[in-house]
Amino acid sequence: MALNVTVVAADHAVWSGEASRVVAKTWDGDIGILTGHEPVMALVAGGEVRILTADGENIRARADGGFLSVENDRVTVVADQAELV
């Protein structure tokens, strides 16, 4: 099983695909997400979102502002500004 991950900025899509792990910086601290994670919504603090794809590739995106949502192995990061780094 894999996570279905989408990272978007206010005006464009940044990255979308399957992943085995997502780590993001929120205002409450770093959050690590694996399959089966409880539903959660958090405010994204400016920083890096690290994604380990299902193929083992590391993807890094810079996300400033916005929120992160997790539900049913679906992770969505909606940021004011975001880009791959």
From TrEMBL:
Subcellular localization(s) per the UniProt record: Cell membrane
InterPro entries listed in its UniProt record: ATP_synth_F1_dsu/esu (IPR001469), ATP_synth_F1_dsu/esu_N (IPR020546), ATPsynth_dsu/esu_N (IPR036771)
Record-linked Gene3D superfamilies: F0F1 ATP synthase delta/epsilon subunit, N-terminal
Oligomer and partners: F-type ATPases have 2 components, CF(1) - the catalytic core - and CF(0) - the membrane proton channel. CF(1) has five subunits: alpha(3), beta(3), gamma(1), delta(1), epsilon(1). CF(0) has three main subunits: a, b and c.
Keyword DNA repair among record annotations: no
Keywords: ATP synthesis, CF(1), Ion transport, Membrane, Transport
Top-level taxonomic group: Bacteria
Family: Belongs to the ATPase epsilon chain family.
Molecular function as annotated in GO: proton-transporting ATP synthase activity, rotational mechanism
Protein name: F0F1 ATP synthase subunit epsilon
A GO term from the CC aspect: plasma membrane
Domain ATP synthase F1 complex delta/epsilon subunit N-terminal residue range list: 3-82
Alphabetical list of SUPFAM superfamilies matching this protein: Epsilon subunit of F1F0-ATP synthase N-terminal domain
Topology versus the membrane: Peripheral membrane protein
